[in-house]
Amino acid sequence: MKKRRKWLLLGLGVTLLLLFGLSQFYGYIMKDQWNERSAAKAAAKSRAGLIEITKAQKSVWDENSIYWVLTGKNRDDTDMMVWVRFTANGKIADDDTAVYAEMVSNGTSEDKIRAIIKSEMPGITIKRLLPGVYNGEYAWQLFYKKNDRYHYRFYRFADGSSIGDEFSLPNR
Prior knowledge:
34% helix, 4-stranded antiparallel sheet, alpha+beta, Nuclear Transport Factor 2, Chain: A, 2 helices, TseB-like_dom, 2 domains
């Protein structure tokens, strides 16, 4: 009986030690991401006047298009979207165009762009839809599946129109 209890306590101790180690490893891996998100939120509040942030999404298309896009409300209770541009080493870009804010009513909301996509391409499965930047334009980045292939397509935030051609990913 004592041997069984000893092994049970030892197993429990090892399990707890492994769980603690995994949580520390996860925190170490995610620290940079969390720091970027916190910096983006602070920039959106100080430079764009957001007082409430409801969503923060990271969009990366290439090394010059690394953005955190925050959705929220300003002091006038107006729905806003704020794009905060980052450098490749995780710092907010240090020029005047690093933070761009726009009222959602002046552009295309997520619900509206989903309706546009559904009417243009009724047979697709949307895997991810997030705001970002494509070729210097504020846009919605659509990742979708159509006929067992995956594709990317971009839509302008300003009016919901398609930008360029779709990108088809190769089959595996």
